[in-house]
Write a structure and sequence with these properties.
Length: 434
């Protein structure tokens, strides 16, 4: 956190007015799904600094006119959170905050309709807990316990935490995994109507007590489901003010790979208008993988196969398709469903890495043009554009992640690098990729 403060002049140079510090809060020890297995919502990761240092950073940001965005994980806590520890120790109140089962009867019924988010890392959606002698619902990883949002105590607890973070001066809460919060049998337990009620209730609570706080929906879902998180329903209701424009991101990369814009025009053009009080977070890539969310109906409308185009994009951006300029890394490949997502920094996916390896200056120029093209869309379409750290310097993949025991199972660490100070002088040198 002290190091972030030292970089505030650099952020000012870039014109940044909102800083999103991902995985800021204290996670469980060891593997923590990149920090999203939260052990304490109200303290920063001790490896980053103290609470006092966080409050000092927020004050310094505010003095520079910069808002802070913090991840607020709604679907689950870690198994090391005080609620989970109390549940293991026998507290009926805390056990009721989570979804647990005495035997496999319930989990086996639910598994018939549930997909696997990380089939390679964490197959199945339930984990046996020895201290409680119960099965715990664990959508993402075995150490991330799903909260039971049908219990109103969960809303009371989470709303209280949101208000505490607002008191710190956090001005934007990114509602992580909001689409997964409500469980309904015989569905995939995503995008249920009550998930929107969760967001609406949080919006109402904050509107009364901390009205300057903005909610960002982390809902990486299909286009027909996405609009709802901005409050567009049969009757509009205040919900989140911001949502990630996932379709715009996917269609940008699709245009680069295919050389055609008709699918993008079809997919983006049919999105319902969003409420006037809301807007998009527009982006080229993020800290997560790229899921090739090509809608079958959109693809069919222009004579493509949805599954075929998804397969093509996965192969193209891993660099296995003839003529590909990308050097991405597969993520969460699932041979049963044909699903494969992609990891990689923008520079790596856009061709900078391949051009430098080939020592081809013309290819390098084209790669940089691709990056500028994608960011022109993100900045020009309307909304709040995001730059993920390193893209502004043409930084490439972190190639050290496979050697780290805590990271080697998750290829997303390829595009979660440390800031490369060595590139900073190059930002003023037009002869460099940076």
């Amino acid at each position: 956190l002290a190091g972030v403060r030292r970089r505030l002049p650099y952020l000012a140079e870039l014109g940044v007015d909102t800083l999103h510090l991902l995985s800021l809060l204290q996670p469980r020890q060891g593997d923590s799904d990149g920090g999203y297995a939260i052990a304490d919502y109200l303290r920063p990761d001790r490896r980053h600094g103290t609470l006092d240092e966080l409050l000092e950073l927020i004050a310094a940001l505010r003095a520079d006119g910069v808002s802070l965005c913090v991840d607020f994980v709604l679907n689950h806590t870690s198994d090391e959170h005080e609620w989970a520890r109390a549940a293991e120790d026998g507290s009926a109140y805390h056990r009721a905050l989570f979804r647990t089962f005495p035997d496999r009867t319930g989990p086996d019924r639910w598994e018939t309709c549930l997909p696997e988010v990380f089939p390679n890392l964490a197959p199945g959606n339930f984990t046996w807990n020895e201290p409680m002698q119960r099965w715990v619902w664990t959508t993402f990883r075995e150490f991330q316990w799903d909260l039971d949002w049908s219990n109103p105590d969960v809303m009371v607890e989470i709303a209280g935490l949101a208000l505490e973070l607002a008191n710190y001066g956090v001005e934007m809460l990114r509602l992580d995994a909001i689409a997964f919060t409500w469980k309904r049998f015989a569905t995939n337990c995503q995008n249920q109507p009550e998930a929107h009620l969760v967001a609406q209730a949080l919006r109402a609570t904050l509107a009364m007590a901390a009205p300057a706080t903005v909610l960002l929906a982390e809902a990486i879902v299909g286009p027909d489901d996405l609009i709802g998180y901005l409050g567009r329903h049969e009757r509009d209701r205040p919900e989140c003010e911001l949502a990630y424009h996932n379709q715009l991101m996917v269609q940008g990369w699709s245009m680069l790979a295919s050389g055609r814009a008709d699918l993008a025009r079809t997919a983006v053009g049919r999105l319902t208008d969003i409420p006037a009080r809301t807007t998009w977070f527009t982006y080229v890539r993020c800290h997560d993988d790229i899921g090739w969310a090509i809608d079958d109906a959109d693809a069919s409308a222009i004579g493509l196969s949805g599954q075929g185009h998804r397969d093509y994009l996965a192969a193209f951006f891993r660099g296995d398709f003839p003529g590909s300029f990308a050097r991405g890394t597969p993520f969460a490949s699932n041979p049963l469903t044909g699903d494969e997502r992609t990891s990689g920094m923008t520079a790596t996916l856009a061709g900078v890495t391949a051009a430098l390896e080939a020592e081809d200056p013309d290819a390098l120029d084209r790669a940089i043009d691709r990056i500028l093209f994608l960011y022109a869309i993100a900045f020009g379409v309307g909304g709040v554009p995001i730059i993920y750290m390193g893209d502004e310097l043409c930084q490439q993949d972190d190639r050290t992640w496979p050697a780290d025991p805590e990271r080697r199972a998750d290829s997303r660490w390829a595009h979660r690098p440390a800031f490369d100070d060595a590139l900073l002088p190059d930002r003023d040198d037009p002869s460099t990729p940076t």
